[in-house]
Q: What sequence folds into this?
C-alpha cells in the first residue's frame, strides 16, 4: 500500500479462499533494520527481525497455515475499514467501523531516542473513537519457512514465544486479558470511546528485554516524530509534494541504516507469475533498483542516505569485482 489512503474495504473481502491477501494491499512498516507487512484485516502477515534479510518470525503472506501472524481486528464479521499512513510518517493507521462503534489501530516498528533500539519492537495502539468495539487478538509465531518448530513459554510478565534464533515477548495493556495456549496467544476484549490500549511484541536474537507497556506507547510517538523530522527535510518545491514525500518514505524503508545497503523489496519468494521461474529473494541489493533509489533520494536532497548507499555499493564492487 504505497498511497496515503485506500478506499473502504469489508474485512470479509480481504482474503481469498486459501487465506491470501493481495500483496499490493499490504501496509509496510520499517525501522531501518527489519520490516513488517500489515493486511487490511489487521493481521501482520510478515515480519523479518531483527534484520530485513533474517528468516521471518511471521510469514503468513507465504504460508497462511504455518507462517505465523499477529492478528488484531474487530470481532464483528461485518466490519469495514479504511487505512492511511499518518501524515509524513511510516506509521499505519486503520479505522474500523462496526455495528457497535468505531476504533482505530495504529501500527509501528518503533525506534528509540538514539535511533534503532537494541531490540525489535512491533507496537499496536488501539483507540476507541465511538461507542464500543469488541476486538480479537491472536499471536502465533511462524516456523521460519519450515526451519524450526515454534513454542511458547509462560512468564509472569507476559508470554514468550520462541521462533528459531528469535525470542518474542508479548506486552499488552492489562485490559487485554491474554489466554496463553501451547502454540498461540489469544484475547477477546472491548475498547470503548476515548480508551487507549497497547498490544506489542518485543523481539531479539540476544537477551530479551521485557519493557513496560507505557514505554512502548511513548516510543510510538517518538517514532512518528522522527519520521516527520526526516520527511520535513525533503527538498521538493514543485507540484505533488505530498506524493513525493510519501514515495520517499517508502524508499527509506528499503535502506538499511547500519550499512547503507538498499533492498529491492521487503519480501521473498513472491513470483512475478504463479508457477513461473522468476521467483527471487528481493531482500537483496540489486544494482539497478539501488541506482534508481539513490537517484530518487538524491533529487529529494537526502545526502546522508545517498552517501551511505553509494559507499556500500563501491565497497561491494571492490569485494566482488565489476
A:
Amino acid at each position: 500500500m504505497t498511497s496515503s489512503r485506500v478506499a473502504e474495504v469489508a474485512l470479509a473481502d480481504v482474503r481469498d479462499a486459501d487465506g491470501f491477501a493481495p500483496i499490493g494491499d499490504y501496509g509496510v512498516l520499517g525501522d531501518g533494520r527489519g520490516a513488517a507487512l500489515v493486511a487490511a484485516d489487521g493481521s501482520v502477515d510478515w515480519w523479518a527481525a531483527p534484520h530485513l534479510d533474517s528468516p521471518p518470525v511471521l510469514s503468513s503472506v507465504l504460508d497462511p497455515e504455518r507462517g505465523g501472524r499477529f492478528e488484531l481486528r474487530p470481532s464483528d464479521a461485518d466490519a469495514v475499514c479504511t487505512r492511511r499512513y499518518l501524515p509524513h510518517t511510516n506509521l499505519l493507521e486503520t479505522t474500523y467501523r462496526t455495528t457497535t462503534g468505531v476504533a482505530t489501530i495504529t501500527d509501528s516498528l518503533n525506534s528509540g531516542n538514539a535511533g534503532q533500539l537494541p531490540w525489535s519492537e512491533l507496537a499496536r495502539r488501539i483507540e476507541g473513537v465511538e461507542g464500543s468495539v469488541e476486538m480479537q487478538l491472536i499471536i502465533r509465531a511462524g516456523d521460519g519457512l519450515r526451519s524450526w518448530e515454534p513454542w511458547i513459554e509462560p512468564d509472569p510478565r507476559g508470554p514468550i514465544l520462541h521462533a528459531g534464533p528469535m525470542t518474542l515477548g508479548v506486552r499488552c495493556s492489562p485490559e487485554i486479558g491474554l489466554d496463553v495456549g501451547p502454540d498461540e496467544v489469544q484475547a477477546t476484549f472491548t475498547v470503548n470511546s476515548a480508551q487507549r490500549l497497547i498490544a506489542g511484541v518485543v523481539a531479539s536474537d540476544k537477551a530479551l528485554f521485557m519493557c513496560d507497556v507505557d514505554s512502548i506507547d511513548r516510543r510510538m510517538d517518538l517514532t512518528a516524530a522522527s519520521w516527520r523530522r526526516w520527511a520535513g527535510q525533503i527538498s521538493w518545491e514543485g507540484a505533488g509534494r505530498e506524493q513525493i514525500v510519501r514515495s520517499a518514505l517508502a524508499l527509506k524503508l528499503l535502506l538499511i541504516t547500519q550499512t547503507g545497503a538498499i533492498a529491492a523489496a521487503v519480501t521473498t519468494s513472491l513470483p512475478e507469475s504463479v508457477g513461473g521461474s522468476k521467483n527471487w529473494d528481493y531482500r537483496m541489493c540489486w544494482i539497478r533498483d539501488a541506482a534508481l533509489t539513490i537517484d530518487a533520494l538524491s533529487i529529494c536532497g537526502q545526502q546522508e542516505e545517498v552517501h551511505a548507499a553509494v559507499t556500500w555499493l563501491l565497497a561491494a564492487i571492490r569485494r566482488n569485482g565489476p
In short: The radius of gyration is 19 Å. The chain is about 20% helix and 35% strand. Residues 213-232 form the longest helix (20 residues).
